């Protein structure tokens, strides 16, 4: 096995086959532990697994048996777990590079091919990205010597210190603040791994853009509050909050619901709106086109992230993508880590509608 990410995924798969309940949450915790510890020896890797993948002596027995088989480590097989003071003899080295090199390899892997444990390894890399939207003028103002407009009220207030004589003319400029970011994320079956990757990016990335996040498949679900928690908790809770996770796709209906309940009331006005979807529309493409036209009249900029566009054979000639394409300011793939920069650049782009 070539790297720690593959080791983590393979071990979790073997444990599930052996009857151990290793869900996405446990697999993510194990991957995070491997990333932090960067184990160089079998014992260290085993202890990471023991701490994150088991919750009872019975679980530890299953882990010990599977671990001994996978890594040819008989010293953890018969008795179960290592004890704190137990001597195990010389520990064998784990034949894998550090977590950093694992992330480098995963950077070119399509999100659709990653196991949950591998996706979790990308969190540290995603925290290095900066998520920012273009600035817009605020109604609030601030005093500035270089301002073009005179602030008479402030000038008169300061003049009290000089006997009422306005010795210095005070000027002001408008404050600037980041535009709102709204993310509409398709969580149908074909888009599930890409949705998890983008939601993880929103949780991990640095920057001043606080996103309003909605997921959709057959209906719309707001996840903004859920995603303000820690990454591992947020993604687990997101799955529970969105009842149609991995369902069908009605993009036009969901977009219409967003505009009727949130967007037209101000959330989408002047915002950067990101739609993550492969464009497979089980509803009416004509409805999607009408709702995209409504959205384009409200939003400052519309960015569509479609992993299918990574293929050189992709053409937006039919269905939902054909209906949506004329209203998009940018279309990117965002299908793997080294393509995320295109998405961030599109979000930060300054060309849009006022």
From TrEMBL:
Pfam families: VWA_CoxE (PF05762)
CDD domains documented for this protein: vWFA (cd00198)
Tree of life domain: Bacteria
Annotated protein name in UniProt: VWA domain containing CoxE-like protein
Organism: Amycolatopsis thermoflava
């Amino acid at each position: 096995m070539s790297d720690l990410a593959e080791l983590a995924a393979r071990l979790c798969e073997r444990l599930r086959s052996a009857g151990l309940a290793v869900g996405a949450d446990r697999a993510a915790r194990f991957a995070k532990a491997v990333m932090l510890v960067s184990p160089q020896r079998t014992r260290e890797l085993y202890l990471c697994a023991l701490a994150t993948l088991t919750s009872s002596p019975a679980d530890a027995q299953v882990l010990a048996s599977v671990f001994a088989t996978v890594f040819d480590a008989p010293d953890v097989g018969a008795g179960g777990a290592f004890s704190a003071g137990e001597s195990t003899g010389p520990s064998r080295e784990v034949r894998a590079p550090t977590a950093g090199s694992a992330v480098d390899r995963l950077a070119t892997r399509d999100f659709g091919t990653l196991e949950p444990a591998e996706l979790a390894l990308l969190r540290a890399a995603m925290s290095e990205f900066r998520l920012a939207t273009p600035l817009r003028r605020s109604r609030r103002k601030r005093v500035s010597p270089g301002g073009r407009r005179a602030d008479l009220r402030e000038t008169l207030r300061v003049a009290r210190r000089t006997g009422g004589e306005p010795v210095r003319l005070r000027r002001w400029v408008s404050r600037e603040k980041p535009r709102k970011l709204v993310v509409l994320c398709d969580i149908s079956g074909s888009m599930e791994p890409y949705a998890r990757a983008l939601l993880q990016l929103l949780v991990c990335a640095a920057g001043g853009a606080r996103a309003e996040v909605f997921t959709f498949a057959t209906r719309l679900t707001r996840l903004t509050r859920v995603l303000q928690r820690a990454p591992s908790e947020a993604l687990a809770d997101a799955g529970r909050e969105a009842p149609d996770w991995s369902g069908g796709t009605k993009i036009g209906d969901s977009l219409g619901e967003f505009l009727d309940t949130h967007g037209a009331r101000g959330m989408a006005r002047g915002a950067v709106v990101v739609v993550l979807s492969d464009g497979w529309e089980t509803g009416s493409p004509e409805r999607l086109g009408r709702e995209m036209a409504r959205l384009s009249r409200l939003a400052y900029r519309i960015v569509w992230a479609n992993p299918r566009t990574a293929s050189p054979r992709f053409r937006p000639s039919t269905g939902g993508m054909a209906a949506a394409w004329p209203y998009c300011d940018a279309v990117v793939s965002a299908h793997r880590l080294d393509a995320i920069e295109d998405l961030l650049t599109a979000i930060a782009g300054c060309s849009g509608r006022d």
